[in-house]
Design goal:
- This protein has 233 residues and is mainly beta.
- It folds into two domains: 121 residues, Elongation Factor Tu (Ef-tu), domain 3 (Beta Barrel), CATH 2.40.30.200; 99 residues, Jelly Rolls.
- Helices cover 5% and strands 48% of the residues.
- The chain contains two helices and 20 strands.
- The longest helix is centred in the first third of the chain and has 7 residues.
- The radius of gyration is 23 Å and the shape is globular.
Length: 233
C-alpha cells in the first residue's frame, strides 16, 4: 500500500493520517537566467552553475480518520527534517513542512476532509538510505557514484603529518595531521571529534560526480573511509 509518508522516521499512519495521493516523482527546475537578444528568435539560457536547482515542493494529499489525533499531529508535523514517501521508498528528502494545515475545517464535522501537506525540499535531491561506506587502503581507487547528481561525501582520512588528498582534479592539502581528520562536505567543515581543524586544510571540500571518481593521496595515510551520501534528481 502507498497510503503513507514518514516524517523524521515516524509513519503518518501512527497519527491516523492516510495519504490519498502521493506526490509524483518530480525533477527540480534548474536555476537559470533567460536573456532576450534583439534580432534573435527565442532567448538565451544562462545556467547559474552545474547542478544548481531551485527548491522542490512535494505535496501529499491526506485525510484523518479521527480528529482526536489533531493536537498530537500539530506537535509532530512541523519544522524541518527528513521525509520518505511510499511511492519512492529506500530513500528520503531533506525538507520543511511549508504550509499551514487547515485542521479547523476538519473539526467542523468532516473528519474525512482531505488536506495537503507541502514539503519544501532543500536541497531538492532524493538521498539513498544508509549507503555502504567505501574504504580505500591501497593508495588509490576508482569510486563509482551511481546517482544522477554529484554527492557531498564525508571523508575520514586516517594518517599523520602532511597529506595531499586528490579527488579527480581537486587537490586538498592537509597539514600537521595527528592520527586522522574528517572532511565533511555537507557542512563544509574539517574536524577531529569535536575539535575543528579547518586551519589544517587548504583547498575545496571534495565532491563525487556521477560515474567514476579517481581518489588517491600522497603522505602517511593508512586508509580513507568515505560516507558517500549518494543522491538523485
Amino acid at each position: 500500500m502507498i497510503d503513507w509518508f514518514e516524517w523524521n522516521g515516524t509513519r503518518c499512519t501512527e497519527y491516523g493520517i492516510y495519504v490519498s495521493e502521493q506526490p509524483p516523482v518530480t525533477i527540480p527546475q534548474e536555476r537559470s537566467k533567460q536573456t532576450t537578444i534583439p534580432g534573435r528568435p527565442g532567448s538565451l539560457s544562462t545556467l547559474e552553475g552545474e547542478d544548481v536547482y531551485d527548491d522542490l515542493t512535494l505535496t501529499a494529499t491526506c485525510f484523518i480518520r479521527d480528529p482526536a489525533f489533531i493536537p498530537s499531529i500539530a506537535a509532530w508535523l512541523k519544522g524541518g527534517g527528513t521525509v520518505t514517501f511510499a511511492n519512492r521508498p529506500g530513500g528520503f528528502y531533506h525538507a520543511r513542512v511549508s504550509n499551514q494545515i487547515p485542521f479547523e475545517k476538519i473539526l467542523r464535522g468532516n473528519p474525512h476532509r482531505s488536506f495537503a501537506v507541502n514539503f519544501r525540499c532543500s536541497p531538492p535531491f532524493w538521498y539513498v538510505n544508509n549507503p555502504a561506506e567505501v574504504t580505500i587502503s591501497n593508495g588509490s581507487a576508482v569510486v563509482v557514484n551511481p546517482g544522477s547528481v554529484y554527492s557531498e561525501p564525508i571523508f575520514h582520512v586516517y594518517g599523520s603529518g602532511d597529506i595531499t588528498l586528490i579527488v579527480n582534479d581537486t587537490f586538498i592539502e592537509l597539514e600537521g595531521i595527528e592520527d586522522s581528520i574528517v572532511l565533511n562536505s555537507v557542512i563544509q567543515e574539517a574536524y577531529q571529534g569535536e575539535t575543528l581543524l579547518n586551519e589544517k586544510m587548504e583547498g575545496d571540500f571534495p565532491v563525487l560526480k556521477p560515474g567514476n571518481n579517481l581518489i588517491s593521496w600522497s603522505g602517511d595515510v593508512s586508509r580513507v573511509v568515505i560516507a558517500p551520501n549518494w543522491r538523485y534528481l
